[in-house]
Amino acid sequence: MSELFFNESVILLDVEGDNKEEVLATIGNNLVERGLVKESFVPAIIKREGEFATGLPTAGVSVAIPHTDVEHVNKKTISVAVLKNPVDFVIMGDDSETTPVQLVFMLAMDEAHSQLSLLQKLMQVFQEEDTLKYLVNQKDKTKVKSLLEEKLDFVALEGGER
Amino acid sequence: MAKTVLVACGAGIATSTVVNSAIEELAKENNIKVDLKQIKIAEVGAYVDTADLLVTTAMTKTEYPFPVINARTFLTGIGVEDTKKQILEELQK
């Protein structure tokens, strides 16, 4: 299993956009520029979000976890974006109801059915209102990185997972 | 006989992995045998004759001959106990 790429370069603060498509393009294009995903990743993730929405009305701050098929990914990563202003994402499992998302965790996974413990830890973070509020108000990418590394236990993941 | 439970999301990659594991644990805690199948929502049609329950994070408007339970609460934590109760009720039928 390849290691997860995660550092300040995939953490974006003050991301601006009028709608979810603009936001997804901004976050996705950053990953394309860094060679972490193929160019096809951006249209694929926008299309997938339209078909299967990923907005989650979590405690305090709504999040979204856009993701798409593994074939568009070069290197496994999680890109974190704090939006300057909340942008409406359709709620997962709904067809029209939206939630104002402030935090986007774009998942670029390179294997299906993997990453269980990472995803479980991420969902755990979604249930911690204080952590989400801290992330939304953070202006220092290194602090965002440190907090998520601790919460998601990246070091253990790289060494220990099947 | 173990019930066949489909766990589906849009991609079959991320959210169904988390939900699958949560149901596995729930069944184990309650000593219920389940046959879990983690699939993409688009693949549900292939299991129409064999499945007993669909638990999904994706939207579906299709009518199925088995109950459908929305699993979003496993991701947000809000209302997850109700969802677990619903699933358990179906498994114990």
Written account of the structure:
The complex is a heterodimer of chains A (162) and B (93). Chain A is α/β, with parallel strands linked by helices and 162 residues long. Chain A has one domain (8-157): Mannitol-specific EII, Chain A, CATH 3.40.930. Chain A is built from six helices and five strands; from the N terminus they run E-H-H-E-E-E-E-H-H-H-H. In chain A, strands 1-4-5-3-2 form a five-stranded mixed β-sheet. Residues 156-162 of chain A have low confidence and may be disordered. Chain B has one domain (3-91): Response regulator (Rossmann fold, 3-Layer(aba) Sandwich). Chain B contains three helices and four strands. Chain B has helices at residues 15-29, 73-76, 80-91, and strands at 3-9, 34-40, 53-56, 68-70. Chain B has a four-stranded parallel β-sheet with strand order 2-1-3-4, with helices on one face. Chain B is globular, with a radius of gyration of 12 Å. Classes of the chains: A alpha/beta (162), B alpha/beta (93). The A-B interface holds A 48, 51-54, 56-59, 65, 67-70, 91-95, 107, 109, 112-116, 119-120, 123, 126-127 and B 9-15, 17-18, 21, 38, 41, 56-59, 61, 70-72, 74-78. Chain A: InterPro entries: PTrfase/Anion_transptr, PTS_EIIA_type-2_dom, PTS_SugarTrans_NitroReg. Chain A: It comes from Oceanobacillus profundus.
Task: Describe what is shown at a glance.
The complex is a heterodimer of chains A (162) and B (93). Chain A is α/β, with parallel strands linked by helices and 162 residues long.
